[in-house]
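We emphasize that the prediction below concerns an isolated chain of 262 residues; any contacts that depend on oligomerization or on bound cofactors are therefore not represented. The input was used exactly as deposited, without trimming of termini.
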Amino acid sequence: MLLQNRIAVVYGAGGSVGGAVARAFAAEGARVFLAGRTDAALDSVAQEISAAGGSAETAVVDAPDQEAVDRHADAVAKSAGGIDVSFNAIGHGDVHGSPLAEMPFEDFDRPISTAVRAQFLTARAAARHMVERGSGVIMAITATTARHAIPNVGGTGVTFDAIESLCRQWACELGPRGVRVVWLHTTGILEAIQDTGDLFPDYGTGKAMTRDELIDWLRRRTMLNRLTSLVDVGNAAAFVASDRAGAMTGCGVNLTCGSVPG
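Result of the prediction step, given as a token string:
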């Protein structure tokens, strides 16, 4: 197993992406600590992991809360003997559908400030324990909006750009201490695009879209005519967290199905 006896913390573990990453880590032998804001969602993921023979523990932690994050990381490190992997998959509260000229600053800024604060705090909390042991992997997730200029996405593209820049900064400072920092770069994730019955913004196409139309539009922007799946994310996360990716840091893993070449 790639992650046998590793200690992994997943923030936002009750969500679709965080849950997929947590299940993948557990399947590869990691002891997983699930952190998030909703007990029921965390318990559901933990039960799935346990039913599959894995090990998972849950805790309600709000990732932008400095004291809560530090307290939880300290508790995990004390009980488990350290932290080997930290993955941040929290939601950012993005607002789509309005041009910037008509968007309140608060709606634009919310995902940026939420993501940067949460990514900084969770990375710092893990790093303080990882550097003591001279090893560890800190991970984040971004999307094609970090590279593509798409109308009506508010602060989402800036948010993902900021996450990637922050990861590079962490990587250059933590690398000499044996800690790697990597992000996963994805398309929109098929299973995470919820059908609420409402139309999605036009994103510059000139026509608001249904879920199926949005998915078709996103697929046509890729080379493989498909979107990143939760399985793709989980598999890549488990590999990056393992020793087999030991030369990777300060970079993104391109899971965009060719939507972002290179």
